[in-house]
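I am writing to request your help with a piece of structural work I have in hand. Here, with my thanks, is the record as I have it:
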Amino acid sequence: MEKEMDVKTQFVTNWTDIFPLLIWIGIFFMTWLFMHGADHYLQMTPEALGKYFPVRWFLIAHITAGGGALLSGIVQFWPKLRNYSWKLHRAIGYLYLLSILVSSVSAIVLAFTTAYAVNWAYAFTLQVWASIWISATFIAFYKAIRKQFKLHKEWMIRSYIVTVAFLISGFAYKIPYIQQLGSFEEVTVPLFWMGWAVPLYTYEVIRSSRGRQHKCG
């Protein structure tokens, strides 16, 4: 306890903390925009919800918990906050884990029900996406329990990349040029794959390159 209190006294912000703060503000703003676009669902009427009305609570849980995952996950990568208090880091981690659990399970329900109203490819894509989301987060949690913190960090990055993919694909579809490429069914499926697969591939390339540099050094 005394050791943790000593660390807390050293928590002083400076100009180097501006960049992490701007990232969090950017994620917060994009999350707000994304969730604001779903405000009409809160009317909870058959007219507002359409095909989602029978599974409305899963839809609300998916959107709300997904926003919580976006906001809680990003602060875990701030080294100063992580080193400031491991108890705080762990508490935020549990909040992130709970948010992912609620949002991803709700996404699975939606993917196996209402998604088929679009088409099979749309439903299958969401099923794979949500499954990867759950599994990557679980592996990150498991590595933390095993105290394999380097692997825990790597899997947390993978988990958060899949989390942010919802924003990437969602905002990409709002681009007028993208919408002109085809119907909703034709455009959204490749966007969903692009949203998580390309950033995840990019991360793996960067990670492997850094690994080779360390070995050469």
Q: What stands out?
A: The CA atoms of residues 49 and 56 lie 7 Å apart. The mean pLDDT is 85. The first helix runs from residue 2 to 9.
